Amino acid sequence: MKMIPSISTLILLALLGTFHASAQTLTQTVRGKVTDHITKSPIPGATVMVLGSDPLIGAVTDESGDFKITQVPVGAYTLRIGFVGYRDAILSQIQVNSGKETVLTIVLEEEFNQMDEVVVSATEKDRTINDMVTVSGRTFSVEETRKYAAAINDPGRMATSFAGVVGSDDGNNNISIRGNNPSALLWRMEGIDIPNPNHFAAAAAAGGGVAILSAQLLDNSDFITGAFPAEYGNALSGVFDLNLRKGNNEKREFTVQASLLGTDIAVEGPFSKNYRGSYLINYRYSTLSMLASLGVPLGDFVTNFQDLSFNFFLPTGTKSTITVFGFGGLSDQNRNALQDSLTWQTEFDRMSSTFFSNTGAVGIKHAYILNKSNFLQTTVLASGSSMGDKYGILNREYQDEERLYSDFGQSKITFSSVLNTKISPKYSLRSGVFLNQLHYNVYERGFEENTGQMQTHIDEKGYTQSVQAFSQLNVRASQRLTLNMGLHYLQLMLNNSTALEPRFSASFALDEKQRINLGYGLHSQVQPLGTYFAQKEEEGTITFPNKNLGLSRSHHVVLGYDRSLNPYLRMKVETYYQHLFDIPVMPGTHQTYSILNQEWSLMTDPLVNRGFGKNYGTEFTLEQFTHRSLYFLLSASLYSSQYKTEENIWRNTRLNGRANLALTAGKEYHWRKNRTFGINLRTIYGGGFWNTPIDLDASIAQGGTVLVESMAYTEQNPAYFRTDIRVSLKRNRPKSTQTVALDVQNTTNRKNVYSKYFEPMEGSINTIYLVPLIPVLSYRVEF
């Protein structure tokens, strides 16, 4: 990697030359819309004030709930939004840049009575955007994905700064929440479930190498880590509930970003001057293969990816809107075996590989304000994914011997309809249904060591359906007490697996600075679709032993305490217990396999729903929201994650690191009015993951890795430690904002251990390490 730092330094010095001196005072427009948080009805007459401005500036919303504040000097501001009968909303750290207008969507919560006790309005980061989330949830902003060191505009990588969240592999953005398998995560966009939105994703994964969705497209969104409300289903660990940003409907704007990872281009603007609709389109193309062709050492695979995402906002009247949104990503990795056997030192040198992973979704959402109490949102989404992998080994005659071939194709049409009802200022009801038509065409064959031949594991195509329905009631019992209760129903028509799941949460404010939260939920999840079609052949007859596998299920209980130490500093403690049951495991009292440890590939052996798991722990968060240009987030977790099969022994899951500590911090320095220098740090220390020991003698005899299954997950990796640093320089010019940044991942170049494997050509057990020091230089301009 010696060439990359030198290239980065040269480019950085060249770009810094564009930041020439200027003391001009620059301004920009801040505008947006204010609506009711349940019915989405516009609130005319609301006041929007820019706190700290001198003289004080602000605006009042018009009959459409819109406001506009012009000539706001560039910088970071706090806005207070108020209206009679509603709680004030406080938005802190609203960034105003000269390159693009700041356009906000603001919701207000109605007061239901006037009491002597007053609870101070929370800032936007104290609470989730979804008002029915009361435990284990937080909002994350686009600014966080941009500023966090090594987050590279990726929500998954950013989330590893949060308590209870651990990255399962530095090379991708898979995350484990509270010890759960990464595949237990739900992705949602614009209120509807979406397929895994990541490049280089595998059939059984919820993450991948790089996020398809660019930060250019995202608005502030929610991240939930347990006991989530009834509207979320088919997930066991957590939820990414993503919102898309609407394009500027008054002015055409552009964003261009170039980095060592790729080129990112976004354009947004109005369809016409007399129409309030807007478009936002983002395209990204990877430059990794170009750098590799120039001789930059980026690994053994030729890597390519590109993606397109968009959001079209189309008002159709004063009470209704149509939104057309979607994303698509293409990615592949290829490697050719070395053609000279004299150069073969490891089995990997003989391997050729072709991998692809393509994903996309297009949705149409219709939002309609039925009346002053009801808001209906109906969405239709068409989505699909195609993933394939093929690799082989060259023999001494330079013939390619196939070892694996897989091709997993899935498509889905989803219909959802959700009704929000404001029964009174105290009570609100949200109910909805999700109907899925699923199509699949899945195939896999692999090499069997026992027979020395390729054998088909999965070969099936067809269709099925799934149904989800929910209803949840939010009760503001008093100024201090809020209750949320609901039911979620899930059914997979393939084998008529069903689940009825109660959910409950409560939040009680002890005073204006502190509150306690309690949550419970029963959660269920469908197995990875290909798992149901694993086939077994006996005496010429093919059977499907997993066709009737039931849902994996889990009870979540969470107890939390929140305290505002001052307006900018927050402390949070949560303790939780999760009881997992009906988990697919291999049958037999001597078997140690559980699907809880399956991360990437599909399991094709016969399974039964007789496994268990338990996750429990305590999380601590101390967070300072940006104040005086300084922010920090300290999160600590002590936890245990274990599983049990029919052998009736509790074992560590692979991801049971037991402890994790993360510090994320940043400071900005302003000078000459229009320049900002930022330095951001993230350091993570965690317990090592667990591996099953390798039987060296048996591996030598077989010519491949043989595990000591009776000692499953009894060998722990060394502790994990990683430090990332980001430095950036932002310059506001009269019609543009330029930012140059350098992210250095794994700054200390620590060799963190991932796992071990048997190397046949050396006859030894070797170690696989996670990513080394990687610098990522980027340049961004908004205009």
Word description of this protein:
The protein is mostly beta strands. The chain has two domains: 4-123, Immunoglobulin-like, CATH 2.60.40; 146-747 and 765-782, Maltoporin, Chain A, CATH 2.40.170. The protein is built from five helices and 45 strands. The strands form nine sheets. It has a 22-stranded antiparallel barrel. It has a five-stranded mixed sheet with strand order 8-15-16-11-12. The longest helix has 14 residues, at 3-16.
Concise synopsis of the structure shown:
With 783 residues, this protein is mainly beta. The protein has two domains: 4-123, Immunoglobulin-like (Sandwich); 146-747 and 765-782, TonB-dependent receptor, beta-barrel domain (Maltoporin, Chain A), CATH 2.40.170.
Number of helices: 5
How many discrete structural domains? 2
Structural class of the helix and strand makeup? Answer: mainly beta
Biggest β-sheet strands, sense, barrel: 22 strands, antiparallel, barrel
Task: Based on the coordinates given, report the CATH architecture of the largest domain.
Answer: Beta Barrel
What is the fold-level CATH name, i.e. the topology of the largest domain?
Answer: Maltoporin, Chain A
Report the strand count: 45
| pLDDT < 50 runs, ≥5 residues | 1-22, 114-123
Report the principal-axis shape: globular
| Range of helix content | under 10%
CATH top level class name of the largest domain: Mainly Beta
Mean pLDDT: 89
Q: Tell me the radius of gyration.
A: 27 Å
CATH superfamily of the largest domain: TonB-dependent receptor, beta-barrel domain
Strand content: over 45%
Distance between the termini: 34 Å
